[in-house]
Amino acid sequence: MNATNRVMNRVLLFLAGVVLLAAGIVALAAGILAGGDPPVWTREPLRVITDVWSSLARWTVDVAGVGPVSVLLLIAVGTALLLTVLLLVFLGTRGRGRTREVLEVDGVGGRTAVDRSVADAVLAEPLSRRPDVLAARAGAYRVRRAPAIELAVTVRPGAPLGAVAAAAQAAVREWDQLLGSRVPILLHLADRGWRDSFRTATRVE
Amino acid sequence: MTNEQATYRRVLRRETHSPRTAPAVAVAAVGAVVLLAGLAGGVWWLVDPAFRASAARWFDGASALAAQPAAAIAVGAVLVLLAVLLLALAVLPGRRSRRARIADRTALLVDDGVIADAVAAAVARRTGAERGRVSVTMGRRTVTVRIVPTSGVAVDPAAAESAVHDTLAEVGFSSATRVVVSTEGVVA
Question: Where would you find the membrane-spanning parts of this chain (chain B) (predicted)?
Answer without folding.
Answer: 21-47, 67-92
